[in-house]
Each structure stands twice: as C-alpha cells, then as structure tokens.
Amino acid sequence: MGGMILNINKRIDKLRELMKEQGIAAYIIPTSDPHQSEYVAEHFRARTWISGFTGSAGTVVITGDKALLWTDGRYFIQAEKELSDTQYELMKMGRPGIPNYMNWLRENLNHGQTIAFDGRVFNVSTVEKLEKLLQDKNIKLETKYDLIDKIWTNRPELPKSEAFIHKLGYTGLSGREKLSEVRQNMKNNNADYYLIGSLDDIAWLYNIRGRDIKYNPVLISYAIVTRDRAYLFVDKSKINKDVEEFLRVNNIEIREYDEVLDFVKNINSGSTILLDKNKINKWLFNEIPKKCNIINQMDVSTSLKAIKNEKEIKNQKNAYIKDGVALVKF
Asked: Which uninterrupted H or E stretch holds 99?
C-alpha cells in the first residue's frame, strides 16, 4: 500500500510540473470517456490512475497546492480508505458546507487564471455551465490538454474487441427501419445531420454490439446520420466480414474512428445539426463550423429505444423469467 501511495503522490507532482509549464492554475479529471459513458474502458480510467480511487463516480481537481476528489455518499468509506495518506482531500458531495467542484473553482481561483481539462472527456453542457459560472472572473478554460497521457507510462491501449451483430430476432426492427424513424424526426426538425456520441444509442440504432467496456455490450464509435446516408466511425480492425456486410445491407458506411473530426469540420456551413450536448464532447463540438445551426435535444434514438416493440417486450419477459429462476436457484 505504501508504494501505491508514493506512486499517487509522484503522479500528482508530475502533473503539477506540466501545469506550471503551461500556466495552468487548476486541472480537472472526470470519470467519463469521449462518449460520456458511465463505465469506461481501462484506457480512459485517468481519474482512477491519478487518484487511486476506484469507485465508478468522482471528479479530481489538482491545483498548485491542492489535490481534491469529489464523490457521492455511496463511496465515502471506500474513498477515505483509498485516499488515506495521499495528498488528496475528500470532498463529500451533498454534505453541508461542501461546494461542488465548479463552485470550489469559482471561490478559489483568481481573476484571469486558467483551468484546463481534456475536452474529449467533457460534454458540451458541462463546459457551458462552467463557462457561465466563471464568466465574471475572466477565468480561461483550456480544453486541448490531455496532460495525464503525457505522464501515464504504460497506459492501456484503446480496446480492440470485435463487433458482432445483434440479430433481428432480438431487435424486432432492422437498422434501415430504425434509420427511417430517425430521419422522420430529422425532417420534422429541419435537420441535415444527426451527430451521435452515445455508445448505447449507436449500438441500438445500427443493431451492433461490442465488448469494449466490461459488462457493457458497446463498441467505441461515433455515428452521423444525414437525410440519405449513415456513417459509423470505428476502428476498422474491429469489423469482420460478416459485420461489414450486415452494415452495408443496412446502408451504413464504415469510416475510421479518428475520421469523425475531419467529417465534422467539413459539414457545409449553414447546415442544421441535431445533437445532445449532454452526450457530445467539447473536442468534437468545437470543430462544427460556426455558421451551422445547432438543435440541442435528447438523442432521437434514446426516445425511440425507450418504446419497446413486441419482439423486445417478449424477449424482456423471457429475460425476467431466466433471471427469476437463477435467483431462486441461488
């Protein structure tokens, strides 16, 4: 345990050195990945790496002389144990007198200072809320730095799980049929593009699954739907011949994961884009041409998948029966 504590404190010190070089007063490390997932692949467990806290929810803020971790009541005992003897101070969310991390930053930073974070792991809504809160203090938000990557030696690689097909016997609707429903919503909103970052929404819409995150059947990817085309941005090494043919039949084009940035940059100026600011990260959002119109609403696919079709209801009942039998046997 002593060695781990020493490692955590060294990591904080290394991060502070980089912050000082870049003129950064505070650096924020959240729990999420570029897709705002609740559970994340090992590659994105930066908050755990920098703090040693292994709970599923929490936010770290590092300043020149403070190391703070915010988490909720589920994790107070665990966090106290995992953070003990490190530089960290536990901020118990919801307790009287404990500000959230945004208010703490407002209260403790000076006019004109800089807060930084990796814009890929912060959604647009959160950044806009922080900007509004700090506006009168002229505090700059810098979104381009993944400082953790510079000091995390032997960082786990991005996951490489192979995609697989979620069959019609389970879905009840083909990808084509789901895309037709999505496009009807786009038409109603006069939207030219629908940008999706949420992994469960992409898996549902395209009827594909993956194993990129433990216990979550998702594939790390982005999706973009237009009035007549649909794209999946994914590491192509994950797509075998069967999945490739399945997507082709459903008129879904495969592009490399990193190509999404250039695609978004080159959207026609003046286009209308449908997206959910709670699910799209700031890094990608920044590349949308400034003259595009943004319609911010809950993902269309989230609303559609909430209403189960007959096949899904039948399968859900079967799952409950199997679950009940397993529980009784246990």
From this structure: none
User: Helix, strand, or coil here: 263?
Assistant: helix
User: What single-letter DSSP state applies at residue 137?
Assistant: G
Classify residue 91 as exposed, middle or buried by CB count within 10 Å of its CB (0-12, 13-18, 19+). buried
CA distance 150 to 178: 41
Distance CA 328, CA 86 (A): 44
**How far is C-alpha 277 from the geometric centre of its chain's CA atoms?**
11
Answer yes or no: is pLDDT of 3 > 60: no
Inform me whether the pLDDT recorded for 6 exceeds 80.
no
| pLDDT tens figures, 208-226 | 999 999 999 999 999 999 9
Q: What is the pLDDT of residue 145?
A: 84
What's the first-to-final CA gap in the chain, in angstroms? 35
The tokens 């003897």 sit on which residue? Answer: 85
Indicate the average pLDDT of the chain.
Answer: 94
Structure confidence at residue 5 (pLDDT): 63
Is the alpha carbon torsion for 36, 38, 43, 49 positive or negative?
positive
